[in-house]
Every structure is written in C-alpha cells, then in structure tokens.
Amino acid sequence: MTDKHTVLFIGRGQTYDDLKLYLQNLKEIELHHEDVAAVEEMKNGHSDILMIEYAKNHENTCGLLEELCARYPDCILLLMAPQKPGPEQLMQYMKCGVRDIVTPDDNLEAFLQKAVALIHRRSEAGRPGAGRLGRVLCFFSSKGGVGKTFLAVSAGRVLGQSPERRTVLVDFDLQFGDMDLYLDANSPRTIGELFEEVRNNGDRLSDFILDSHVHPVTPTLHLLSAPLSPEKAESIQSGSVVQLIKALKKRYDFVVLDAGGVLNDIALAAFDKADRIFLVVNGEIASIKNAGQTFQLLKKLNYDETRIDFVVNAVSETFPLDEGTLMKILTRKPVARIPASARVRESINQGYNLVLKKPEDPAVRGIREFCGKIAADFNVRLDLRDRPSGFWGRLFKAGAA
Ligand SMILES: Nc1ncnc2c1ncn2[C@@H]1O[C@H](COP(=O)(O)OP(=O)(O)O)[C@@H](O)[C@H]1O
Ligand SMILES: [Mg+2]
After folding, report:
1. What is the CATH number of domain 5-126?
2. Ligand 2 is an ion; residues with CB less than 5 A from it
C-alpha cells in the first residue's frame, strides 16, 4: 500500500488549479489549498510539503518562510517565485529552509516530479531500518603522531568505496587538523565557517548549511575539514558538536571522526555520539601507556566499554612489547594491527591516494581488514575489494593520481 502524502499549497487559485492538473495522476499526493491566514490553523506535521507561491515582496516572503520553517521543521518547503532570485536572495531563501525554487521559466512538471521524489526520499528515510546507517567511528589518542589521522582517512577511503554507502570524514582536531592534507583537498569552507553560519541562522543547522560546507572528495566520500587557523577553534562549543554529529548521522552511513589528541569537551562530545571509539597506539611505549590510561578514564566516566577498542598502528618487527605485556597495559586485545609501511609517509607527502594506488601495500591491507571487521560488527555489507568496479571505480581511479 502506498502512503499518502499531503502538499499544502499557499498561493493563487489559478496556480492551484494548474498544480491540481499536474498532480492528478499521482494518487499518493493529496493537494490542499490554503491562503496565508489559514496557515495559522495548521497543526504541526499536518503536511509533508509546504508549497509557497511568492508573496508580495522578498522581505515578506522571507519572514513567512522563516516562520513556517521554524514552526513546521518536518515539512519540505518549496517556493514558487515570479522570477529567478539573485544569488543573495537565493542564499536567504535557502537559509530560511527552502529546499527548492521554481520560476515561471522553469518546467513546472519537472519541478513537481522533483518535489515528489523529495517526499519519497523522506518517507523512505522515515521507515524503520531504512535510510542511512549513521554509524559514528571516532579515532583518538592523547599522543600525537601515532596515526589517528592516517587511520581515520584511510578507513574513510575504504568505507567510502562502496557505491551505496555515504561516508563523511570530520576533522575534530580543531586547532591543528590535517585531514585535508591527507586527502589533498582544499576546502575554504571548514567546520569553523559552518558553526558560524549555524549561529547566524539562530542555531539551526539546516541541510543547506551542512551541504555547503562538506567537500566532496568523491561522490561517496565527503570531508568536513578543521578551521584554517587555530584561533577559530576557540568559539566552538561541545553542544554544537553534538548537534553536528546528529545531523551527519541522518545523512551518512559512516561518520568518521578524527577526535585529535586533547581530552577536552569537544572530544568527549564526540565520544558521547560515537558507536566505536578507537584508541590508537603505535610502537612507542608512551602511546600504549596513555591509551591504557584513557581507557580506564573513559570507563570511570561511564562510557560503555564495549564501544571502545584499541588499534595498534605502524606495527613492525621492532615493536617493543610482547603480547603479554601489551595485554597487561591495555587489558584487552586490540581489534586491529596495521603494519608499518614507508609508503604511508610517501603518499602523504606526495598527495596520492595510498588505498587506491597501492592496494597491495601491507598497511592498506591492514586497513581493509580492519574495515571488514567494522562491517561485520555492524552487520553491514561493504565492497571491500582492492579496486571498486563500474562507474564509481572509474571515478575513484580518475581521482587516484
Ligand atoms: N602504518 C604506518 N606506517 C608507517 N608510517 C605511518 C603509519 N601510520 C602513520 N605513519 C606516519 O606517522 C605520521 C603521523 O601520522 P598521523 O596520522 O598524522 O598521526 P596523528 O594524527 O596521530 O598525529 C605520518 O606522517 C606517517 O608518516
Ligand atoms: Mg592528526
């Protein structure tokens, strides 16, 4: 059985009649016509789509849209404008929560089909078990240089290879994050600007703000990079971090966080929302000791210990501890051991994608195995082959050089 969806049209009677004609074959859409005053009578969640015909002037329209969007956050807001808005107006409409705009020059039918697709997509996402997986993986170590950024980025690259899965990397090493360097991605719009816009938007994180700040590394791997200068990290609050992760969970299958190296409010907020916290250690005794201490501290802070795992990175023959001593310090077996490889540094310095360019590299194999465990853990099917095939594969290959 098809679910019914309601479109509430606010505007002229003539336009309403046109709309009715277009929608007559779409039995799952129920169209209603109201004037602006009748909106007052609406109950929350009454409609799936609010379709607004441009009111008298731009300012009035923005005021109305803002009000509607705040009052009915679950509705999809569409605007019919008499002419193409300029870039600034467009920006304002988007900030008011408008998802799409149609003008008389546009093809109304195509626009309506898009609107219907939007409702369908939303109702898909609303079904239990459907929509994005929203799994949050967090990499942390209080010791610098152990490989958390390398692991987060590489895991993101492997997870982001599956065409049907969307992955976002978020750099919460707010002062000195360098995920963008690892990905050779230059994005002027960072997490700093994102939070600034959220503040200017009455603390509302809209899809538009989110989409305009993530950088598409590939179609299925996006990046939200750290602020370009360390002082911009100062104003970021842990509450905003929670709000951001919640929003990302709805839009991505995997949200991979580089939580940096400081155990502060930001890192704890990331831990709060994380499905897995990976404490990264390398062959330095100090990193192993610190990770053991962090684990104990997180347990004291009542973090569910089943969500915490150790990952040993850069494992070589010169690894300083035997298995027994490692277990004594960490108190549990690491979930993964990633071999050391000279190519890791080379790939970072030369800006190439190690995962794709050197799939046979031992460190890359280790990362793929690690991602296989993550997938099994979450009971998710992933494409973990060396090289993805088909359209996405070609795109990845094109981006690998
Ligand atoms: N598996 C590995 N094998 C060899 N070198 C590695 C490996 N992982 C990381 N490195 C090296 O360690 C350095 C620090 O890694 P990075 O991920 O930036 O650490 P962190 O984010 O913990 O500060 C990198 O520049 C890289 O050269
Ligand atoms: Mg780092």
Report:
1. 3.40.50.2300
2. 149
